[in-house]
Design a protein that fits this description.
With about 400 residues, the chain is of the alpha+beta class. It has 7 helices and 14 strands.
Length: about 400
């Protein structure tokens, strides 16, 4: 049996000291040192074999954080693990207490093509793997040519939504674990913050002026953000299905900026099959009794299940009877917008599966509601919880 852990970690605006990332926002040397220290401590607590990071502005600061985590982890090992003179050194508990180093791990970083000058920076994503990678990591952001999503209005042209590039990159890697190679996607979809159009003179968008509050205009900004997020989810879905149809196990993780039941999340995971398609009229029905056969229904269900993903959080809640998991808190709303999705290769009920998840961890004790007086603490910590799936693979592939 091979066991491994995989985590998603939104670090919230990781960049070095005295570098303006958003307008008038930067870290003093002391703030950066505090933030790096906090993030490194979280990494030691996770001790995950694979980590997908979001909100990385530069690779140097990420490498700096990983190096500090190794320093702290090695100090922990020296303190907590018995040396070779102790007869009890081989007890299983010490395997669990030991921190595993990232000094030999591989790091893939995907910078953001939308990144700009100081004050107008845009973050990328990264994946850290103790198992290394198979082949070169792939970055999905520039779509090459405009992607038009057409609409129909009563059979007539209903216009289209166009997207040329994603707001943030999607990073795709293949990770060798035991005798298996698992495709891992790390994403950070468009946030719910409204997307407003600036005037031609480059000044601020009218909707941004809260002293002249425009509820309809701001609602349109939210609609733009939602459409962009769903289009990005669709692009990711296409890449996922390509891997699944090639027979590859898939794990998708990251900051979805939406909960599990949101449309964008369901686009990524795929449809839920109906219980029975036999009562449905066929797509080409010629009379009221022209419905799908039992054979049709079985085939439809099989085709849907073959390319469907499953949220690790929900699988664990079902197994553990835990009633609440959250990774973000703002305005009194607690929700999970950070996700780890697994293909059916990791479901115990799937024939020919390669393993299953046996535990799910969430580190969220640091979260404070954005309306709470202690919320400024989140500038230096992360405003996201960290999630981790514990997966056990079966024996060697045949």
């Amino acid at each position: 049996m091979t066991r491994f852990t995989i985590a998603s970690f939104n670090v919230k605006n990781l960049i070095g000291a005295d570098k303006e990332y958003y307008q008038f926002q930067s870290y003093t040397p002391e703030e950066y040192a505090w933030k790096r220290d906090w993030l490194a401590d979280q990494m030691v607590t996770l001790d995950a074999d694979i980590i997908g990071f979001q909100e990385i502005f530069d690779e140097e600061s990420l490498s700096d954080m990983i190096t500090l985590a190794d320093t702290y982890g090695e100090q922990h090992n020296e303190f907590a693990l018995p040396d070779s003179t102790k007869r009890y050194r081989k007890r299983a508990i010490f395997d669990k207490l030991a921190y595993g180093s990232y000094r030999e791990a591989d790091l893939a970083f995907a910078p953001n093509l939308n990144d700009g000058k100081p004050g107008a920076r845009r973050p990328g994503v990264a994946i850290l793997s103790r198992f290394g990678f198979v082949g070169a990591p792939e970055i999905i952001q520039d779509l090459g040519r405009p992607l038009d999503i057409p609409f129909s209005d009563g059979g007539e042209d209903g216009g289209f939504f166009r997207i040329r590039r994603l707001s943030r990159p999607i990073l795709k890697v293949r990770v060798p674990i035991g005798d298996h190679v698992i495709t891992v996607f790390n994403c950070h979809l468009k946030s719910k913050l409204g997307e407003f159009i600036r005037p031609d003179d480059g000044g601020p968008a009218p909707e941004a002026d809260l002293t002249k509050y425009d509820p309809v205009g701001r609602a349109l900004g939210s609609a733009r953000a939602a459409m962009r997020r769903m289009a990005e989810a669709w692009v990711l879905r296409g890449a996922i299905v390509q891997e699944l149809q090639a027979g590859n196990p898939v794990i998708v993780l990251g900051d979805f900026n939406d909960a599990e039941n949101a449309v964008s999340s369901e686009i990524i995971s795929g449809e839920h099959p109906f219980k029975n398609y036999q009562w449905m009229l066929r797509h080409d029905a010629e009379h009221r009794g022209d419905r799908y056969s039992a054979e049709d229904a079985a085939q439809i269900t099989q085709d849907i299940e073959a390319v469907r993903l499953h949220p690790a959080e929900k699988l664990f809640v079902r197994k553990s009877l835990r009633d609440m998991v959250f990774t973000a808190a703002f305005g009194g709303v607690y929700e999970s917008i950070d996700q780890i999705y697994l293909s059916r290769h990791f479901l115990p009920e799937t024939a020919g599966n390669i393993g299953e998840m046996d535990y799910f961890s969430v580190l969220n004790d640091h979260l404070t509601d954005g309306s709470h007086a202690e919320a400024p603490y989140n500038k230096l910590a992360s405003d996201h919880g960290q999630i981790m799936a514990h997966i056990q693979l079966k024996g060697d592939a045949k």
